[in-house]
Every structure is written in C-alpha cells, then in structure tokens.
Amino acid sequence: MAGTTSKSIVFFHPDLGIGGAERLILDAALALKSKGHKITIFTSHCDPAHCFDEARDGTLDVHVRGNTIFPATLLGRFKILFSILRQVHLLISITISGELARLKPDAFFIDQLAAGIPFLRWRWPNTRILFYCHFPDLLLVQNRSRWWKRIWRLPFDRLEGWGMKGADKIVVNSDFTKGVVEDVWPALARKKRGAQAISVVYPCVDTKDTSKDTEKGNGKVDISTADDELWQGKKMILSINRFERKKNIGLAIHAFHGLELDDRRGVRLIVAGGYDPRVEENVRYHQELVKLAESLGLRSATANNVVTALNVPDEIEILFLLSVPAQLKTMLLTAARLLVYTPANEHFGIVPLEAMLAGVPVLAADSGGPLETVLEGQTGWLRSAEDVRQWTEVMQRVLHGLSEEKLRTMGEAGKRWVRSEFSETKMADRLDEEITWMVDSPRRRVLDFADLLLGLGMAVPVVAALYVIVSRVFENMKS
Predict the structure, then answer these.
(1) For residue 477, how many other CB atoms are within 10 A of its CB?
(2) Which residues constitute the domain of residue 303?
(3) Are residues 398 and 445 in the same domain?
(4) Which of 116, 159, 191, 361 falls 20 to 30 Å from 459 in CA-CA distance?
(5) Phi-psi region of 120 (alpha: psi -120 to 50; beta: other; left: phi over 0)
(6) CATH classification of the domain holding 191
(7) What is the pLDDT of residues 92-141, one digit of tens each?
C-alpha cells in the first residue's frame, strides 16, 4: 500500500532560487516528507538572501555541493554547458566523499537537468530515478537563428532526451506539458506501459491558513493595516511573474494603458515578481518595462520592499516590486481586485492558483497550463495574449462593471476549486503513489543502437570534463 514504508529520497535541483520550478521542488519535498519519507536536497547554488524560507530555515535538509570548479555561466553565456558540468561535479563529489552512500537512497528525484541520470543509473543500479519535467529545455531556448547556434545546441538536446529515457518514471506538471513531451520525444510516448509511463502530478499551493502578519523593517505589521497604508484606498490590478521577456508582462501594461483615463483614476497596476540582480535578463527587462510605461505616459516607480513601497507618491499608476518575499506576496493577493497572468503557453503557472486561493479572480492567457487551472467565467477569464483589447475589457469590467457580490462569488469558487484539486495533500498522495510504484517495479534496459552512437559521439568531451572534475575533487579533498 502506498505510503506505508518510509523511504530515503534524494532530490537534485540546479539552483534553489526564487521561481516556479523551485517552489514546486520544495513543495514536492515537503509533500513527501509529510508522508514520512526522509528527504535530502542537493543543489549547486542556494543564496540565503534569495531563496524560499524552507530552503534556508531548516525545514528541509538542503546541501550545496558542486559549486567550486565551474561558474554558472561564462560572461553570461554557455549556461546549459556549465549547468550540466555543475550537476556532474555535484554527483561525483557526493559519490566520492561517500555522502550520498550514507543516505542509503531508495529513490532519486531530479528535475530540469536530465544529464546526470545516466551516471546515477550506472553508479546506483538499484536506486530508482523519477524525473519531473517542467517543460522540455530544448523548447525553452528561443534563439536558434544562427546555424552555429543550432549545431551548438544539438548535443545538449539529444542528451536531454537520452537522460529522460534513463529515468524509471517521468512526471510532468500538466496535461499541456505531457502533450508537448510526447510530441518532442515520440519514443517516450510509445512506451506508455511499464516504467516509462508519463504521468501528470499537478503542483500544489499551501491551502493551510497562514499568518496575517508580514515583515516591516525589523518588526511585524498587520496585513490589513499595511494594505490601508500601502494601497491608499486604490483598486489594485496585480501581475506576479519573474522579470523575463517570455512572461510577456508588457501585455499587462498595454492593457492597463487601454483603460480610459477616468477608469484608471484610483487604480494602480502592481508588477511584482522574481528579480535577481545577477541575472542580466531580469535587469534589462525591468528597465524595458519602465521605459514602456514612460512611453505610454504612465507614471511608474520601483520599490524593493514594503518600506520603500509605502513612500510611493499617490499619483504613481504602475508600481514595480522586485524580489517579492512570501509575506509581501500575501499582502498583494489580499489587496488585489484582479490578477493578470500574461505568459502564453505557460507550462503550468502556480500564481493563478495562489490568487484563486486568496479569493482573487484571474485573467490569464488562453493557452498552456491556465486552461487546466482557471475556470472561464467561474474563477476568472481566459483571453488571447495576442488581443490587448480583450484584456482591457476584462480589466474595465472587474474595476467598474461587476458588483462586489459577484466578485466575492467568483473568489469563493476559486478557493473551493484550488482546495479540491491542487492541495498539498493531493500532491503528496500522487507523488507517493508514483514513487512507491516506481521502486516496486523492475528496472528495464534503456540503451539502444542510437543511444550507443550518441554516447560514442560525446565520449571525448565527456571523459575530458570528468577527468577535470575528478582531479579537482580529489585536490579539494586533500586540501
């Protein structure tokens, strides 16, 4: 029976920063821990000043390894290469040191990078591997316009598919992602029985009651009191996303600008989300959004925390909030009248769930994950990301057309929907079932002739990289 035997489950994640993938991994770890399993997380980077609370406060057992030889990038480039090298470095380090062996792992839980799966299969032949695919990495890379960039990406794309084939179980975050994975790797799609089955396990949100207090300086402030100060009685439209171009945040700004001047009076658009000053795209995209607002004649300001946000002049129409911590997010969702979720073909999207759980209707793009999470006309609206006018119309309707009773009704429907389908308990049960089934199933061979050719083609650079890693690991151990 699922969940009756405690297992040692080891997670591997490249960078435990602040983002949807990181939130999912921590939630998955917490879900399995609630089932009585022993959870250990290894990562190549975790900045205590830029991570979720559970990654730094001891709630979860997090270890940072494999970060002493290779940088994350070289002059902002070659991210995929160095991510793989850092993962291999991590795996070899904890294998040579005996740290991984002491955990006596029953299962590995890997996401984002599948490159290390062949090593784990070879070194730990009796330990099953679950790969959680947020979305195929080869489809996330947008810039392939030059022939040499296509050639550069080819071995990494093949390695991703090969690595996933080595997993004993593949789990994805939505039916949308499952369809994409089966289109990209038909061989995986054909193996629908046995250890290669692709299953959907939805991410979850914390459906438990949370504190109504939030940070202000070194003390605490009540959320309801802070709302009165911070929003100054304004109606608020909220966008929460990482500052990345693919999130299409400009759509929210254009739609907000489309409101008549009288309709914008007493309204503020707040653009909040993950922002890491180390990431060039975060910095540049924020600057682009500020310039966009200025070009449309919208007055904007940028704040880094609640204290600076409190000092924003009343006439500011767009407020950019950078690196929003969990408690500030709670404040934002408590005060919002509408959440706008702008990315098209989003793999899943956790923010709409968080908004609906807070009783906030959601306006989202009619593609990808939101098609499975937002109920049209009941918990929100789905509109084309290509039609700004449709988004403006929904904003106007929520601000001035719907009664407070109707908004409350939609909010209550959203809460019920999220609690019934996207709770921590449901995620815990599903993951526990998948891992228990995987551990109890016989392992099958995965290598075929094409895999052998790929392995031979990559043998020289891989062996060279492994030689460097092993040499440096031994040097570090001696010193």
Answers:
(1) 10
(2) 213-422
(3) no
(4) 191
(5) alpha
(6) 3.40.50.2000
(7) 999 999 999 999 999 999 998 998 999 999 999 999 999 999 877 666 55
